[in-house]
Design a protein that fits this description.
By secondary structure, the chain is an alpha+beta fold. The protein has helices spanning about 5-30, 120-125, 140-145, and strands spanning about 40, 45, 50-55, 55-70, 75-80, 105, 110, 115, 125-130, 145-150, 150-155, 165-175, 185, 190, 205. It starts with a helix and ends in a 13-residue tail after the last strand.
Length: about 220
């Protein structure tokens, strides 16, 4: 056969071999489902209180006991938002916004079975769940101000009768539901299967954006 026919046949054979080698592998890759649990490079830490978690997200929530207008009168309540009392009477003035505030942390690198898991996917599927940390690493100043209260910390001498300006703090982890039916491996990265959501019967509150707007803070 002429040389050009031989070259054409060789090219056709190589093309078929390449298709056989790559086609099924790509299809198999897209059918791979998660087997293990997500992992992070290091723990997320709220250094102000020594609270940490190995989950993909950590959130600190801070509430202050304050006066709020209630019709023609006032009522005291816990609020994460500082209530401006400049229009209140003197007997119902609120303290300045506290120096410690709500804050969130998100893991920079999350993997699942050795493959990357995007933070956006984690936020889509994740649920915030309150947890009770250990408080053995509180500084002297913090331990003088706060005491364990429920799942978190509080500054009230009597938690059953808080005073205006008292604080309470709790922490939440961003937890993921079982992922076997929610993700596929595509080109080496986990992607969300169309229509997949977190379990509808989950008792956890839906994940909110990582940026938490609250009291301005500094120590």
């Amino acid at each position: 056969a002429p040389a050009w026919r031989f070259a054409a046949r060789l090219a056709s054979a190589m093309s078929m071999l390449f298709a056989c080698a790559t086609g099924p592998a790509q299809a198999d890759d897209e059918r791979v489902r998660p087997q293990g649990q997500p992992s992070t490079v290091s723990a997320l830490v709220d250094a102000d209180f020594g609270v940490s978690t190995r989950q993909p997200g950590l959130r600190r929530r801070v509430q202050m006991y304050q006066w709020q207008r209630d019709g023609v009168g006032y009522r005291a309540l816990w609020s994460e938002r500082w209530i401006d009392s400049s229009g209140h009477d003197r007997a119902h003035a609120n303290p300045p916004a506290p120096s410690i505030a709500g804050r969130s942390w998100m893991a920079e690198r999350i993997t699942l079975d050795g493959h990357p898991l995007d933070a956006d996917t984690v936020r889509q599927l994740g649920r915030w769940q309150r947890f009770r940390p250990g408080f053995s690493r509180l500084s002297g100043r913090q331990s003088a101000t706060f005491q364990p209260e429920g799942d978190g910390l509080g500054s009230a001498e009597n938690p059953m009768a808080p005073a205006i300006g008292d604080l309470r703090i709790h922490w939440e982890e961003l937890r993921l539901p079982p992922l076997a039916d929610k993700l596929n491996l595509h080109q080496g990265r986990w992607v969300l299967i169309a229509g997949a959501t977190a379990a509808s019967d989950s008792p956890l509150a839906a994940a909110e954006p990582v940026a938490v707007v609250g009291f301005g803070w500094s120590w």
